[in-house]
Design goal:
Helix content: 25-40%
Number of helices: 8
Low-confidence stretches: none
CATH topology: Rossmann fold
Mean pLDDT: 88
Number of strands: 5
Radius of gyration: 17 Å
Largest sheet: 5 strands, parallel
Order of helices and strands: EHEHEHHEHHEHH
Distance between the termini: 46 Å
Shape: globular
CATH class: Alpha Beta
């Protein structure tokens, strides 16, 4: 049904951009939601704006939430971003780049906006295969949040709608995500993944996010259009 509204969490990265593309392909009218939360890689917000414009977002809302005040992650305070780790290391434990409760914070705001928009659908680009060990990227987390969301809203309690959290990439490898984006005709040159960009504007090529991105493009047999150091 064309014209259905969906809130799409859009960081400007590879996964969220592909999730936006999926929502658009499924006929949703997309409302993009991004966050300026004090992340050191705020370069991603420029990408989010370009992606939202290129994919025809009905509206793009950027909320400011300074999570640096809470701290506890390498993406917000002055904790070094780990670099050069092996694939085995990335798959073990929860890394310091995990921002405490980030997806819960983001989804809660998406839920509020969806209720105002009278939307029953939220899209998020979480992935449970080629990811950095974040607990809020797992299927059981998404399922639990969806259950909670339908208990927490006026629309849910009154039975006017049932909210659905769409995580279309959750069971895909990074290579499969790249291929899906190519199928959707997405311009990955607009996206950004690096946790700590170099002064010359290029991606560092060594952080976990850069390595996962390189792995995905390499295994997909697709050239990454974003310049990377090293």
């Amino acid at each position: 049904m064309p014209g259905r509204r969906a809130v799409v969490l859009l960081s400007g990265g590879l996964d969220s951009t592909t999730a936006f593309g999926v929502a658009r392909a499924e006929g949703f009218e997309c409302y993009a939601l991004s966050f300026d939360y004090g992340q050191r890689h705020d370069r991603e917000l420029d990408s989010a704006r370009r992606v939202a414009a290129a994919l025809g977002a009905k509206e793009h809302l950027v909320l400011r939430l300074d999570l640096r005040a809470i701290g506890g992650a390498a993406l917000t305070p002055d904790i070094p971003v780990p670099k050069g780790g092996s694939g085995a290391e990335m798959g073990t434990g929860i890394p310091v780049t995990y921002v405490p409760a980030r997806n819960t914070i983001f989804l809660s705001h998406a839920l509020a906006w969806a209720e105002v928009l009278e939307s029953s659908d939220i899209f998020i680009g979480v992935n449970a295969l080629d990811y950095s060990g974040y607990p809020d990227c797992r299927p059981e987390y998404i399922e639990a949040f969806e259950r909670m969301a339908n208990l927490a809203t006026k629309a849910g309690v009154e039975g006017r709608t049932r909210l659905h959290i769409h995580a279309p990439l959750i069971s895909l490898s990074k290579a499969q995500i790249v291929r899906r984006g190519v199928e959707l005709g997405l311009d990955f040159g607009l996206t950004w993944s690096c946790y700590e960009p170099r002064p010359d504007g290029r991606a560092c090529g060594r952080c976990d996010s850069c390595q996962l991105r390189r792995k995905g493009f390499g295994e997909a047999g697709v050239r990454d259009p974003v310049a990377t150091a090293g």
